[in-house]
Specification:
Elements: E1 12-13, H1 23-31, H2 34-37, E2 41-44, H3 52-59, E3 67-76, E4 79-88, E5 91-93, H4 95-102, E6 107-110, H5 113-120, E7 138-141, H6 142-146, E8 150-153, E9 159-163, H7 165-169, E10 174-177, E11 181-183
Domain YbaK/aminoacyl-tRNA synthetase-associated: 47-169
Pfam families: tRNA_edit (PF04073)
InterPro entries: YbaK/aa-tRNA-synt-asso_dom_sf, YbaK/aa-tRNA-synth-assoc-dom
Length: 185
Amino acid sequence: MSWNETGSLTATAALQHPDLLGAPVADALRRADASWAHTVGVAAIDPALADTAEFCATYGVSLEASANCVVIKGKRGSDVRFAACMILATTRADVNGIVRRRLDARTASFAGMDEAVLLTGMEYGGITPIGLPADWPILVDTAVAAASEVVIGSGIRASKLFLPGASLAALPGAEIIDGLGRPVG
């Protein structure tokens, strides 16, 4: 498979480079259906440039091809629920509307950095929906699911993954949600 949204980077099959993946991501790819796993490419990057804006500017990847994984924590009384939201980098997740209702929560907010890292086993700034806890819903914005290719985290800050939006939508627990990502501004 070839990946096209790599800017100045060259992606290779992620399964061939487990050293460029967070442990939960590598494990999930090894357990995944081979035809799905082969849609995922990986490229090494400078970990200091993992944040979306810096990554895109440095490596020539468009913001429209970048998708962010946002970990949301919803609460209703003493019940706490988590979800991962996949939105284009040019949008913001509708946390207090769509996500809060989907989690059946009274309140919803971004999970704290320490909590997100602890629960996912991934580095902050590299969290990705591949390899998340099995009971977390993965909410995928329609625009992400429809993208021919997106760039996402790899579980670590030192690389990025490249895959079709349809591959994200095919993850276990994934739900395609129209309007999840709202335009910034």
